[in-house]
């Protein structure tokens, strides 16, 4: 008996329920990372397999063995159509790859068996131990199709397990089957399609040169060597030489391969699937499509969906956010008074705890946003959005597929830019990457929230709409307009090289699985808290230090000076003045002052300048910075007032009126709508475009856009 | 009048049988997604502004593609 399986790969067509099954099999025991050497997102998780306790005969309980389940990108065949899809074959073809699986689970949509089995036969022909998981039998049933799994298993010579990935039915049987397949030595069955039938000489030569045993794998060396990372340049040239030597026509061979596989699958599917009447997609999918793809109602529905998302994120998330805000303030207050006074106390409360508070306050909004975007994808509606948006997107040089990165950009530009890899056309992909950061990401939300709450009244208009929610929607629309406009400008100035295409399968509508959405929300919050949160807390602390210390004894001098000047003022006023003077002379204050001339035309003072600089690390730091600056520079921090109230109290030293007038607030809002204040985004664009050219182009154009629009807004409103 | 017709020429709701493809690279993608010669197609829906279109292939699933792509599928 072989040792327990270590790696199991999950593979299947898009929309076959693969990721639902992945969640079902791994639950919360999953993690997201990258495949080694490439920047393709990799999801893997712990898979528990029943494992007979053969060594300890004393009890009959089943010991659970653990394996790693790797989720490969959804593909229609093993011939990749985009960079994202190359990963799957790179892993399957290379036994030395760290993720090369011991067994493969192919998920197939039973309602479209013939096409789903195409991929299955290719995987099986590669000689990998395989289990076929037959999913979506309920959809097949509603289409009056009946699938005989036993017959199918006999025909294909592999275990076939009927599952329902959404309810979890059959998943335990699947675990057993995976265990059996991975453990038993397997007889290699005959090829479903042997490439040596048609081209024996070239296949034989590849096999000898690369010491391969599998004919179909040898064919893959011929067809895909350019995307196999484990081959070197010399080997690639050698394979190109063989192709020329034998006059091997790849396109022709592949078209023939696909047609032949389908021809051989047809009688097999006819034997196993019985149709009872006219098979049609479920009636409600057709009825919904009539509305959602309608020239007028389709767009109305899409706008309604967007409106609901923004109202929800603003209105629903407010309750947990208020609660978190209050709890943080209480905790800081309690710590401040309980622990002995001093530098350490200040560092802990004003630096660390304020920073952590600034991170966890986002959790409700991020969870809601990722949950709702996930809902759109799960239900099948996202594909309809791509269809109704394709023609429109093409006008701006983009593709219907650009909608997904643009919508995901509302959550975070970093994963959104990673999803652009599914855009097969490099040119459209580049444009999408360049404009995605203009979509208002969740990190901008706290800035929007605070500034809107400051200057827009909390009124209800038209009976149900919250005015603040409407302004928020307006900011998001502005980001969208900016993104599309820039894409259009780029498409004029950057020449296009390849023609674009758009072929997309339309999934049936499905009722979303709430547990699946729960996992999506949990994952997004976890990665935000762990990854972005770390940076935010660290910067909060650095900032506290910068704001608390100045060069030489300048801090002491500022204190003495102010004390002298204000000696007859009440103590509270004097203390606030001292703190303010100290902040001004601190390192942070000097830095802010240094850039003040550049930002004065936008209506900002040096305090906002500090926040602008620090928020370049990540926009959300703006809020943390504000709270640090004002808890030190403001009056009586023992009051533990929340940041919004602090901003309201801030006075403009020249006019004596509030600092955050509508002109300044809206100017700041404009700045943050367009400015690319995010190091992580620049880093991911560098990685995705392989160079500094495009990230720099992006940085410059967004900054110009931000500066000009903020300036115009301030000048118009003041 | 023997004109070659393609999927882009179909009217909404009209059915036809796939005969061949006029674009080699496109044909690979379409084949893998289940558009086979001999398969029945039906024009199911047309997106706003007339493009892309949604085609039901072999009665069991729906494919969305642009008009110029649909034009590479020759029907009988």
From TrEMBL, chain A:
Mg(2+) binds at residues 23, 26-27. GTP binds at residues 12-19, 37-41, 71-74, 135-138. CDD domains: FeoB. The chain crosses the membrane at residues 296-317, 352-376, 396-418, 430-457, 469-494, 528-547, 659-686, 698-717. One of its GO terms (molecular function) is metal ion binding. Keywords: Cell membrane, GTP-binding, Ion transport, Iron, Iron transport, Magnesium, Membrane, Metal-binding, Nucleotide-binding, Transmembrane, Transmembrane helix, Transport. It is found in: Cell inner membrane; Cell membrane. InterPro entries: Fe2_transport_prot-B, Fe2_transport_prot_B_C, FeoB_GTPase, G_FEOB_dom, Gate_dom, GTP-bd, P-loop_NTPase. Coiled coil: none annotated. It is a multi-pass membrane protein. The keyword Transmembrane helix applies. It comes from the Bacteria. PROSITE patterns: G_FEOB. Residues 5-184 form the FeoB-type G domain. Pfam families: FeoB_C, FeoB_N, Gate. Probable transporter of a GTP-driven Fe(2+) uptake system. This is Ferrous iron transport protein B.
From TrEMBL, chain B:
Keywords: Iron. It comes from Persicitalea jodogahamensis. Residues 5-76 form the Ferrous iron transporter FeoA-like domain. It comes from the Bacteria. This is Iron transporter. It holds the Pfam family FeoA. GO terms for molecular function: transition metal ion binding. The gene is feoA. InterPro entries: Fe-transptr_FeoA-like, FeoA, FeoA_core_dom, Transcriptional_repressor_C.
